Amino acid sequence: MRIEFARIAAGDADALADFLAGEDWPYHAGTQDREAVRRRAAEGGYDDEETRTFWVLADGERAGLVRLQDLADDTPMFDLRVRAAWRGRGLGTASVAWLTRHLFTELPGVTRIEATTRQDNLAMRAVLRRSGFAKEAHYREAWPAPDGTRRDAVGYAILRRDWLAGTVTPPDWADEPA
């Protein structure tokens, strides 16, 4: 499978709205409204100084979306969505590898990249670990779920120095005073 990443274009608002509103995103808070997505796209909410959004193209098909956020900060975050029909085929791992390389090579001020996901999103957690991200936090009942409940969330990050060295430096979990 050929995987490519293409930055969204000004004319992609309808396709973006269809993508986000036309799919079930079980591990994301809330649902997407087509008109709200179109409005946000028109206002630059998917592509501006702070945010860049890319299609994940699998054999030429729009199979996923990567949204890079907080780009003016030294610690950007990202949102990754893969269509249900394409899940389990390595697109998540390829996307995280690509966005990590992209952020660290294109933005020299970036020192770390953070990711937060629901505790029960085992696939994404595995992708993050495989991609060199270390678990740094566990937030109890912090993630609003579509059904109105609150779920635990976990935070991961990769440091530039670890990415360059091909290592993972875990946090010191034994740092609590006696």
TrEMBL record:
<dbReference type="InterPro" id="IPR051908">
    <property type="entry name" value="Ribosomal_N-acetyltransferase"/>
</dbReference>
<dbReference type="InterPro" id="IPR016181">
    <property type="entry name" value="Acyl_CoA_acyltransferase"/>
</dbReference>
<dbReference type="InterPro" id="IPR000182">
    <property type="entry name" value="GNAT_dom"/>
</dbReference>
<dbReference type="GO" id="GO:0008999">
    <property type="term" value="F:protein-N-terminal-alanine acetyltransferase activity"/>
</dbReference>
<keyword id="KW-0808">Transferase</keyword>
<dbReference type="Pfam" id="PF13302">
    <property type="entry name" value="Acetyltransf_3"/>
</dbReference>
<protein>
    <submittedName>
        <fullName>GNAT family N-acetyltransferase</fullName>
    </submittedName>
</protein>
<dbReference type="GO" id="GO:1990189">
    <property type="term" value="F:protein N-terminal-serine acetyltransferase activity"/>
</dbReference>
<dbReference type="GO" id="GO:0005737">
    <property type="term" value="C:cytoplasm"/>
</dbReference>
<feature type="domain" description="N-acetyltransferase">
    <location>
        <begin position="3"/>
        <end position="161"/>
    </location>
</feature>
